[in-house]
Design goal:
One of its GO terms (molecular function) is DNA-binding transcription factor activity. It holds the Pfam family TetR_C_24. It comes from Geodermatophilus ruber. Keywords: DNA-binding. There is one protein chain. The protein is mainly α. It has 2 domains: 67 residues, Orthogonal Bundle (Arc Repressor Mutant, subunit A), CATH 1.10.10; 142 residues, Tetracycline Repressor, domain 2, CATH 1.10.357.10. 64% of the residues lie in helices and 0% in strands. α2 packs across α8, α7 packs antiparallel against α9 and α10 packs antiparallel against α11. The longest helix is centred in the middle third of the chain and has 27 residues. The N and C termini lie far apart (59 Å).
Length: 243
């Protein structure tokens, strides 16, 4: 029988450096200090224990409130999750719609800016992003559909950048859907392991992943070692001809 994973209490999570990120800055100021504190506590609890294993008492206790305090601000635990997931997706989408993207000159510069900013956003908000990406099963069908539309809009921005580069000849004729899926996976997957006190800043990681993204859409001839790799098929063909 598999060993059951230990459940973290709000006291365990307090001050944990792995849960330090910029998530508290995501919440609307109009919600008030208490509601924003509950959302921040919920992010830590959901990211550590999962949505289903987290109780409303956990969330309230983590915010320094009585166990019933959550219901004063949110009618249900699911609405807390929805607020976190919706806001995270909206903010990430907005981050790749800024002026630095619109003013980028050329397909390569635009794609670089997109990947760099999208990666940096997920690094800065890696705890909230972990909840937004991995706890979708806790949403109602209606709320999930709203989030799915936000995800689709983000995907379309990246798809348009790659497809546009292919169309105008800046990129070779790559498989657009496959390349976009790989780029988004790179930028999002870091939320599983990233820490703000690690060796790479969000901006450094964004630049590094942007370089990787451009390699995905570079022509084979321009990649390091392409000339060496290109001679092998010709040699094999010549050998086959002489047999």
């Amino acid at each position: 029988m598999a060993k059951r994973q230990a459940r973290f209490t709000p006291q365990d999570l307090e001050g944990d450096p792995r849960l330090r990120d910029e998530s508290p800055s995501l919440w609307d100021d109009r919600l008030g200090d208490v509601a924003r504190g509950l959302l921040t506590s919920a992010v830590r609890c959901f990211a550590s224990n999962g949505y289903h294993a987290t109780t409303t008492r956990d969330i309230s206790t983590g915010a320094g409130l009585s166990s019933a305090a959550l219901y004063v601000h949110f009618p249900s635990k699911e609405l807390v999750l929805f607020e976190i997931v919706r806001v995270s997706h909206e903010r990430a989408l907005g981050y790749v719609q800024g002026s630095s993207i619109d003013t980028a000159r050329g397909a390569a510069e635009r794609l670089r800016a997109l990947v760099s900013r999208y990666t940096a956003w997920h690094a800065l908000h890696h705890v909230a992003a972990r909840v937004a990406q991995y706890e979708l099963s806790g949403l109602t069908a209606e709320h999930y559909d709203e989030v799915r539309q936000l995800r689709h809009r983000t995907n379309q921005i990246f798809r348009a950048a790659v497809a546009g580069g292919v169309k105008d000849g800046a990129f070779p004729p790559v498989d657009v859907d496959r390349v976009v899926r790989a780029m988004l996976s790179l930028s999002i997957d870091l939320i599983r392991w990233y820490r703000l006190d690690g060796s790479d800043s969000p901006e450094q990681l964004g630049d590094f992943y942007a370089d990787l993204a451009l390699r995905m859409v570079s022509s084979p001839e321009s990649r390091p070692g392409a000339e060496r790799r290109g001679t092998a098929p010709q040699l094999s063909s010549a050998i086959a001809t002489t047999r």
